[in-house]
Amino acid sequence: MRPVFRNAAPSILSLYGRASRSASTVVYDYHAYGGALLERLGEYCSYCEVALCGNAAIEHLAGKGFEPQFENAWNNLLLACTNCNSRKAVKGTSINLGDFLWPCDMRIDTSTAFRYRRVNGLVLVEPVAGTLATRAAATIALFGLNNVPAENDRRSSDRRVRNRTNTWDTAVTLADRYIQAGAATGGFDRRFPQLLAEQIKAIATTLGFWSVWMTVFEDRLYAADLPDPIVQGQLDRLFCDTFTGTLRGRLRVTQQLPYSGYTGLPVMTKAKS
């Protein structure tokens, strides 16, 4: 799951324009943050990572029906596709945020908690110890990330697993070509590999599924016996720097928090670390 960073909440006046009124008189709701979320996180579902293509829903970590005090809280909002948003809502109960993993939680790199594999296009739990594995499994179940509609279910529009699998196959083809181009020209900094890199970034950001691209390219680059600094540098260059709002690699190390103690979650929520 792609770790993301929203940064501090935009000012209300910046959302509505500088009218002849003060921020204290502006009446707003969480929909006002939609543009800022898209700008800072990119047009991707925060959970399944599919490209939203104009179908973004503003998703409340703590459901607004159960935690109304967080309905308009910036740190309680992410972007979701209709499938992830509805799968979570269908639970119909209040949830403890600490029981799940959230891509905006600054204390955890969620990219290390999940494993992506081509077989069946499923999201798996990385074999990690303790509560992290339990929370990862609960997150997969909460959003139905591995939901595969029955063959005869013509009513379902849930194509997340199928699209994830198709993206995997595309990533494999491009990763192999990229490695071949680098080997043939003597490195990835040559003109042809650079042109191919630009095409890869364009295709990846169009399709979404950041974790698929990261997994495929990491596996392929290491299989080509490339040293770790080159592998990590290429992953940063191709995907971490390209997918807006991604907080991994060098960006995670250098990112300044909006304020001391910032976690990326609703301020009053007691989430497990």
TrEMBL record:
Record-given protein name: HNH domain-containing protein
Organism: Frankia umida
Gene3D superfamilies: 1.10.30.50
InterPro entries to which the protein is assigned, alphabetical: HNH_nuc (IPR003615)
